[in-house]
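Researcher: Next entry in the queue.
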Amino acid sequence: MKHTTRALLAFVLVTLLALPAIAAPAMLYVVQPVDMAGVTVEVVVPMEEPGLSDSSMATRAKRAFEALKARGGKAYGQSALTIESATKATLVIDQTADADRVLAEVYWTMASLGVSQLGAAPIVQGEVTLDHLSYGAHVPMLTVFDLLSFERVDQVPPRAFVAVGGKPMPAPEAAKALQKGDSSVKGPVLAALSGKSRRQKMLVIEAVGRAGVRATYKLKADDLVPAIEDKDAQVRSAAMDAAIQAGVKGSKGVIAALEKLVESDADTDVKLRAVKALSAAGVSRFDDLLQAEKIRTGSAAEAMAAVQKLSQSKQVAVAAPALVSALTHTDAGVRDAAFDGLVKLEQWELLHKALSSDVSDKMRERIAKILVEKGSDAARDESLEWLIGKGSPAGAIFAAETYGKRGSKAATPLLIKALDHESPQVREGAAQALAMLKDERAIVPLADAAQKRRRDEEFMMAAAVEIMKTLRLDQVKRLVTSKNTIVRQMAIRSLSEFTKGARPRPDVVALLMDALKDSEASIKRSAAYALARIEDDGIARDLAALKDDPDVEIRVQVCYALGHASAKYAEAGPMLVEMMKDREKKVRVAAIDGIALRKETSAYVQLVRLVNYPDPEIKRAVYGALLALRTGENADELRPKFRKGMEFRDSNVRLVCIEALGEGTVKEDFEALRQAAFDPSPEVKKKAIAVIAGSKLPEGMEVLTLFFGDTDNGVREAALDALGNIDAGGNWAAKKKRYLNDFIGTPNMPDALVAKAKALLKKG
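Model: Structure for this entry, 764 residues:
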């Protein structure tokens, strides 16, 4: 909640500070409807009252009350206000008046004028406090700690209030009281440094660290001693930094606290900074901790401390070589810290030399990757060559991607060599990089690699086709006659790129048609693949003649062509429906995909019958087609099918079903959407959450709780946001509150999400 509150406060303050720097006009605080995220809520808001600012301070409160009565009319009746002193008044509310409204408006208006004691007997026993008000207030409400954000009192928002002793005080008055050292205001500020509120501590610490704030409110380094000794490492660190800003020298309390940090703190960084501060203050007895020799002679912890210090050293000529020596330290943490230090000091040449030294392969890979980005041309080339030849699979893939982006064909030989890497991911990365380089020297090696490992054939083929797209047509035609069968396949596939336009080139089409008759099955398949991708109904009709071809891959390409044919080719749809009965699953899937593209309604009945088909690939295609064929007339009939589809343990099927259920969502859909919580895909979960959120139905809140314990924090946050946006009125309000508390109590919930949930809980 602290982060949300801070952001909200910042927005309000920026808005108020944007106002012209003039004397604040006297305000009335009246009940008005305010739009809050699409919901209208009646709250108290400030409103300027002409002429009120011109009245004397002695009469302003009385005039303000009369102005409220004039605005309120019947709501006030014969209500009256007696001003007893500058800070005390008594309100008598007429029996016929709107007591809740009168009490709220008078309370806030009087508070803005400095009246801190308001009586309203017999409606309120004793003084009126915020707890007695039935209306919320749309006004900035600060704490005394928020005042520390302003370096000058005249910067404090004039329309804001500060809670002092549980009552609102005009912010400028509170700032002046803090400046004067009033115990009711400054006391809580100093006490916070040894209190339990982390936010309050950090605000005071930050204030002491800022010269302007420190001077305005007479804060000093010695005030920070409790925070320097705090149990929280971040609080200690921040307090030490603020004390340094305020000046350590001559401050006995701060020096003693820093000495204690150096002697006992477990945080090496804090310890080193404390040493530096003490040294600057004339305390030299800890200087031995700064010696670079600790890397060689000290323990791992001492070596780490030395590395950290050297990483911040201005004596780079001494620090950098010492850090290079730490790259071979026995402790992995010291090695990593030394590397980070050299990067921070931008020692690229020293890292280049270390690339060929006696460092571990893991460290060498880290060095190589940073040199690719930051090193000289020679260092970058050497690093890439090492990564793609000797690095880990991740390093080799990184190198391949880099080569592709650089666009230098000098890398082609190295990438060709990587086509034989033991990792399939590296082989694919090398092929993709070669495709980006567009170097025709890679065509034959890609073909050889495809032939060597059939599982690599598709991405090797795709890379070669990308290269061939950049060749002239006569060059590709020559490759079509190659003795290498794989090269021929690649060339034939790429020919479809030369047929794009209003009318396909007859010579290319003729060549592909000849290849379609080839006795070699792979050539025939490649020709069918290329022809299927030519957007021409005539070619689609020619391919349709092969719908009963014995080759499965040919029939798949027929389906592709029919699916992408124009609407003028009316026979394409019925043919695809017929091919849904093919004996091969690949063909049936391709036919269904084509039906989805064409929105072939004649397949509707058959597709509905297939929703219970157990095979995942068939089911994915069927549900995708049904979504494409959904209309206003059949939507109600299909809805139960999409609900049933959520039970199938396949993320792709569920994504389609969730999309279908996302239109016109009703509470009966929630039982099906529950299944998304058990899907391994974060995308499925987030999409289901979005559907529930979009429905705005409070019944969906229970389903959202299933996502609270998800391993993906993005899913958790999406569920929380969805819950917060559901308008839960009436009996649902208590349930929403309970669900938010459940979220807060979920184990291992990140602090930021807990804070966000608490803010929603407070908002109601």
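Model: Residues 545 and 593 are 19 Å apart (CA to CA).
Researcher: Noted, moving on.
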